[in-house]
Design goal:
With 132 residues, the chain is α+β, with helices and mostly antiparallel strands. It has 2 domains: 78 residues, Ribosomal protein S16 (S16 Ribosomal Protein, Chain: A); 37 residues. A 5-stranded mixed β-sheet has the order 4-3-2-1-5. The model has no long low-confidence stretch (mean pLDDT 85). This is Small ribosomal subunit protein bS16. Belongs to the bacterial ribosomal protein bS16 family. Keywords: Ribonucleoprotein, Ribosomal protein. It comes from Salibaculum griseiflavum.
């Protein structure tokens, strides 16, 4: 049985609240779980102690049994000091999407076209001054 330590959503519409649970990976997100390990309330400020509460001993026990945390839960465990920090690298995250790149190219073309006529009269005026 593949075990996961993951978030199970609760709360009402637009008011999320999550339970940190140990569950079989084949079960639905909000469905059957084996043990509740803690809670996560994303509506609280990031520096609040009540934002993430978990039973660290129970989490360690599940990790020893082979349970795999999801990405989000792994970050919470890293912040709590249960797991070692993992090096993450997403070089494509900062690059703009296809449409944004096209808009940037169009903007650059327009700026170049607007700058070209503005330079020509300045060059002609400089040439007239040199001729006199």
């Amino acid at each position: 049985m593949a075990m996961k330590i993951r978030l199970a959503r609760g709360g009402s519409k637009k008011r999320p609240f999550y339970r940190i649970v140990a569950a079989d990976s084949r079960m639905p997100r909000d469905g059957r779980f084996i043990e509740k390990l803690g809670t996560y309330n994303p509506l609280l400020p990031k520096d609040s102690e009540d934002r993430v509460k978990m039973d660290v001993d129970a989490v360690k026990a599940w990790l020893d049994k082979g349970a795999q945390p999801t990405d989000r839960v792994a970050r919470m465990l890293e912040a709590a000091g249960v797991l070692d920090k993992k090096e993450r690298n997403n070089p494509n995250k900062g690059t703009p999407g296809k449409k944004a790149q096209e808009r940037a190219e169009e903007k650059a073309e327009k700026a170049a076209a607007a700058a070209a006529p503005a330079e020509e009269p300045a060059e002609e005026a400089a040439a007239e001054e040199n001729a006199e």
